[in-house]
Specification:
CATH superfamily: Luciferase-like domain
Strand order of the largest sheet: 1-2-3-4-9-10-11-13
Number of helices: 16
Helix content: 25-40%
Number of strands: 13
CATH topology: TIM Barrel
Oligomer: single chain
CATH class: Alpha Beta
Number of domains: 1
Strand content: 5-15%
Order of helices and strands: EHEHHEHEHHEEEEEHEHEHHHHEHEHHH
C-alpha cells in the first residue's frame, strides 16, 4: 500500500493544537516541518503532503477566528527547505489554479522537482473561499463549473510548458560553445479562453518530467477532472463500502479517458487515534473533541452547509431542511453532512462536534494493531491503493504511527521495508509522462524569442 503523511497544521484534529502533546507554536518554524518529513521518511512513507489556501475561511466572529490555527507558510517555499534535509520521501504541495498563473506555477514545481531530484508533487485545487477572491481583486469567488474549466486549461498549459524542453536539449558543451540545442526546445503557443502563453519554459526537463498530480475534488466536476489527469486522488469516506464504490467509479471514469487503472492511486484520508488499549484510544479522541469550542464547531458545520445560518435554531433539535438555494452548488461534503443528519438522534450540536472532530478524514480508533487491521481490511477489499495519514496531533501522532503501525504493516507484507527507487513516481509505481513534442515532432514550433 501507499502512505502519504498529511502535515495538517499541528494536528489533523481541529483542536489538536490545544493538546499537551502537540508541538507548540510550530507553524512558522521550518525545523518542525523538516522533523515531520524526516519522521515520515524514517517510516518509508511515499510522501509528505502540505495543504494550503490563499486567504481565511469566513468566521462567525473574531472568537471563532481566534480559536483556530491560522498561519500557513507557502508550501513550495517550505518544501524547497525540506528537500535538502530529506533524501527519498516525496514532497507534495498545494497550488490553486484559480488564483495563480500557469507559467510561474509550472516553473515553481519544475524547480522543486530539480531541487529534490525528482520528488515533487502538485496538489491541484480550485479554491473555495470568498476571502481568496477578495485577496486577488475579485468581488466574488468564481463559479464551480468555471473554476474546473479554468483548472483543466491551466493544467494543459502547464503540461505544455514542462514538455517544451525535450530530452537532449541541454548540452552544456564547452568545446562547441553550445549550451542548448534549439531544435529540441519548442514554443507552446497556448491560446485558450483563460490563458495565452508563448513559452518555452526557462528550465530544462526535471527528473520526473512532470510533478505527480494530486487532486481531491469529490463533486461531479471534481471527479471528472481527477479522472482525466490526476495520478493520486485524495478522498474521504466514513465507511469501507462507499470507499470501494468511489475507487471503482474512478477507475471507470479514468477508462473513459483512455487511462489504465494503475495510472491513478486512490487514497482515503485516515486520522488514527492510537492507544495502548482501545479504551485509551477512545478517551484520547474524546479528550480532543472536548477541546473544540462550541462556536468553532458550529462555524465548521455552517461552512460545510454552504453558509446556512443556524443561530436561530435550538442546538438540541435536528438539523432543519436546507432551503433550495443551499443545495444548488455541488458539494460532496455537504451531502455527507446531510446524510449524517438523517441518523436517529442526530442534533445540530452533535453534528457540529462530529464534523469539527472529523475535519477531512475518517477516524481509526484503537490500538496500533486495530489501526493496522482497518488499513489492511480496506486495502485488501479494494477500497484503497493506500492512505493519507492525518495524525490528530503532530508531531507525536506521526511518530506513534511510524513506530507502532508501520512495523505491523511491514510484517504483513503490505508495506515496503525500504525505498526501491529514487523519485516519487518510483515510490507510487507511476509511469513517466510522455513528452508531446517528442511523441509528435510536428507539434514543435520555433519560439518567438529566436
Amino acid at each position: 500500500m501507499k502512505l502519504l503523511a498529511f502535515i495538517m497544521q499541528t494536528g489533523g484534529h481541529i483542536a489538536g493544537w490545544r493538546h499537551p502533546l502537540a508541538t507548540d507554536r510550530a507553524l512558522c518554524d521550518v525545523d518542525y516541518f523538516v522533523s515531520c518529513a524526516q519522521t515520515a521518511e524514517r517510516g518509508k512513507f511515499d510522501a509528505v503532503f502540505f495543504a494550503d489556501s490563499l486567504g481565511y475561511p469566513g468566521s462567525r466572529s473574531a472568537e471563532t477566528f481566534e480559536g483556530q490555527e491560522t498561519p500557513k507558510l507557502d508550501p513550495l517555499l517550505l518544501l524547497s527547505a525540506v528537500a535538502p534535509e530529506t533524501r527519498r520521501i516525496g514532497l507534495i504541495g498545494t497550488a490553486s489554479t484559480t488564483y495563480n498563473e500557469p507559467y510561474p506555477t509550472a516553473r515553481r514545481f519544475a524547480t522543486l522537482d530539480h531541487i529534490s531530484r525528482g520528488r515533487a508533487g502538485w496538489n491541484i485545487v480550485t479554491s473555495t473561499m470568498e476571502n481568496e477572491a477578495h485577496n486577488h481583486g475579485f468581488e466574488s469567488h468564481m463559479g464551480h463549473a468555471e473554476r474546473y474549466e479554468r483548472a483543466a486549461e491551466f493544467l494543459e498549459a502547464a503540461r505544455k510548458l514542462w514538455d517544451s524542453w525535450q530530452s537532449g536539449a541541454l548540452l552544456a558543451d564547452r568545446a562547441s560553445g553550445r549550451y542548448a540545442d534549439a531544435s529540441r526546445i519548442s514554443a507552446v503557443n497556448h491560446a485558450g479562453r483563460h490563458f495565452r502563453i508563448a513559452g518555452p519554459l526557462n528550465l530544462p526537463r526535471s527528473p520526473q518530467q512532470h510533478p505527480v498530480l494530486v487532486q481531491a475534488g469529490a463533486s461531479a466536476d471534481g471527479k471528472a477532472f481527477a479522472a482525466s489527469c490526476a495520478e493520486v486522488i485524495f478522498t474521504s469516506h466514513p465507511a469501507i463500502g462507499s470507499a470501494i464504490a468511489l475507487r471503482r467509479e474512478m477507475h471507470e471514469r479514468a477508462a473513459a479517458f483512455g487511462r489504465a487503472k494503475d495510472a491513478i492511486k486512490v487514497l482515503p484520508a485516515i486520522t488514527p487515534y492510537i492507544g495502548r488499549t482501545r479504551e485509551e484510544a477512545r478517551e484520547f479522541k474524546q479528550e480532543l473533541d472536548e477541546l473544540i469550542p462550541l462556536p468553532i464547531a458550529l462555524d465548521k458545520l455552517e461552512t460545510l452547509l454552504g453558509g446556512f445560518d443556524l443561530s436561530d435554531h435550538d442546538l438540541d433539535d435536528p438539523l432543519p431542511a436546507l432551503p433550495p438555494e443551499y443545495l444548488q452548488v455541488q458539494s460532496s461534503t455537504r451531502d455527507r453532512v446531510l446524510e449524517a443528519a438523517g441518523h436517529e438522534g442526530a442534533t445540530i450540536r452533535k453534528l457540529a462536534y462530529q464534523v469539527a472532530g472529523g475535519r477531512t478524514s475518517s477516524a481509526a480508533i484503537g490500538t496500533a494493531e486495530d489501526v493496522a487491521d482497518m488499513l489492511s481490511e480496506w486495502y485488501e477489499a479494494g477500497a484503497a491503493d493506500g492512505f493519507i495519514i492525518s495524525p490528530p496531533v503532530l508531531a507525536s501522532g506521526l511518530e506513534v504511527f511510524v513506530d507502532q503501525v508501520v512495523p505491523i504493516l511491514q510484517a504483513r507484507g503490505l508495506f515496503r521495508k525500504d525505498y526501491a527507487g529514487e523519485t516519487l513516481r518510483d515510490h507510487l509505481g507511476l509511469a513517466m509522462p510522455v513528452n508531446r513534442y517528442e511523441e509528435d515532432p510536428r507539434l514543435r514550433t520555433q519560439p518567438e524569442i529566436w
